[in-house]
Structures are given as structure tokens and as C-alpha cells.
Amino acid sequence: MAAVAPYDDRDGVIWHDGHMVPWRDARLHVLTHGLHYASGVFEGERAYNGRIFKLAEHTDRLFASAKLMGFSLPYDAKTINDACYAVLKANNIVDGYVRPVAWRGSEMMAVSAQQTRIHMAIAAWSWPSYFGQEARQKGIRLKTGPWRRPAPDTAPVHAKAAGLYMICTLSKHAVEREGYTDAMMLDYRGLVAEATGANIFFGIDGKLHTPTPDCFLNGITRQTVIELAKKRGMTVVERAIKPEEIANATEAFLTGTAAEVTPIGSIDQTTYQVGPMTKKLIEDYEALVRDKVLA
Predict the structure, then answer these.
(1) pTM of the predicted protein model
(2) Fold annotation for 13-125
(3) For this structure, is 280 an active site residue?
(4) pLDDT, tens digit, for every residue of 47-64?
(5) Active-site residue among 67, 160, 207, 230?
(6) Could you read off the pLDDT of 239-251 as tens digits, one per residue?
(7) Rg of the chain in Å (alpha carbons)
(8) CA torsion, points 62, 64, 69, 73, in degrees to nearest 10?
(9) CATH 3.20.10.10 residue ranges in the chain?
(10) Which residues are paired to 98 by β-bridges?
(11) Where residue 293 falls among pLDDT bands split at 50, 70, 90?
């Protein structure tokens, strides 16, 4: 794997609490509440040809996530959206990844955090396909992970909240040690949920089947791909999917802002081809985000 520059040691600028600051100076205190108690929310956005895809939807979700976490963002949507584009421009990025993040500060250091200041930052960097271009041809290898998505009454499962990704990191690390690319996560009932940072689809009997997002994020890319599939006349079935059913699928793929549309080559012992529905949706998604004419 090629060496990657550490994310705290790069050239450029980051929008931090309303101001552009040098990249290396965008720091926070070690007693920040968000670091100790995961009281933070974030978004992942992609820019294509200088345009941030579905920026308004991402910003709306950031506000919704903050509300679920019990705090309000200190800026309005227009300020945040304008700042996202300003960061791209300041860093000379045309195609890249944008990361807005908001967190509770260091005024209180205990579980209670009512008096903490809410901070916000926006960074952007060039970032190619999350799983690499080779995955488009062969698909990636998944293994069922050791951790499960929690029940809706045990965590703010519909927020894009930092703490919810702890089990994703643990699951991904566990399967990477065995040579897999990512983990497929089950939910608290033992049903198929998603991957560690992307939603999942299966081609079964000529239809697209995807888990109902009742305990994990209904991803913006997921919603986009469902719309594209329906425009193509594909039948999309959102339902509870048991792990044993994945053997009935002939193709499978992931969707997410970082993952875009990524084929799955195998899950555990079940293998898949990069099938016709997957190929068409990769093509259609690429056309949509880059404003190309659909065939």
C-alpha cells in the first residue's frame, strides 16, 4: 500500500469555527468532550468537477444528526454550504472529498455537557475511489464482522454520529487481518445490515434487495441508487434479509459517498459476479454525479 501523508501534516487550509486556518493549526484540546464521550457528528461529501454532490441533503442530515445528539450547530445551512465550497476553492480541489464535523468542546469534562461550546470544522482533500479502481472490475471481499448494529432504543442510530463508528473500525480491522476488504455487519436481530461505511444491495431473481434501514443510516447514495434503479425499470425490494439468503444472490454491491457504487466479489464463502444491474448502476451513478447524459 502506498504511503499516505498523515492527515495532521498537510499543506492547505481548513475552515475552523468560521475562519480559514492553516491545515496544521486546525487543532483542539485533549480534554475536548467530543474526544472523550464521542459527542460529535460529521458528514462525508464528494465534489465532482467542482460541484459537491447533494450538498443540501448532506447539510440537512448534519443538522438532523446534531439534533439527535442534543445540540445545535452554531451556523446556518447557507454558511456551512458556502464554507464547503470556500474550502474546495482555497485548496484548489475540483474532484475530492469534503468532511464537515461538529463537536462539543472542553468547557465541561463529565458525561453532562450542557455548557460546552459547539465547534465546527470543514476539511477537504483529494481522495480517489475508497476501495480502489480494481474493485470496479473484480469486486471486493467481505466477511461477516464480529460486531452488530445496535437497536434503535439503545443508540441514536439515525445520526451520523462519531461514536457509532467505533464498532465499524473494530469490525473492519478484524476482517482485514484475515485478508478481507471490509466487514458485512449484522444488526441486533442477526439480520443483514450494511458494511462498515456503506449500504448493501443484492441481486436476487432479477430484483434488487436491500435491508430496511431501521437501525442504521438510510444513506444519501443509497437513496440515489434506488432512484436510478427505478428509473431503469428495476424492482427494488427493501426488507429484512437473513444472512443465509445472501447465497441466493447472483450479484451484490455497496453504496456510499466514499464507496460510490462498488461491486462485491464475495461475502464469506459466497461468490458473486459483477452483474448487469451492478454495471448499469455504476455507469448511471457516474453519469449523474458528473452531469453526463444517461444512455
Answers:
(1) 0.95
(2) D-amino Acid Aminotransferase; Chain A, domain 1 (3.30.470)
(3) no
(4) 999 999 999 999 999 999
(5) 160
(6) 999 999 999 999 9
(7) 19
(8) 60
(9) 134-289
(10) 45, 124
(11) low
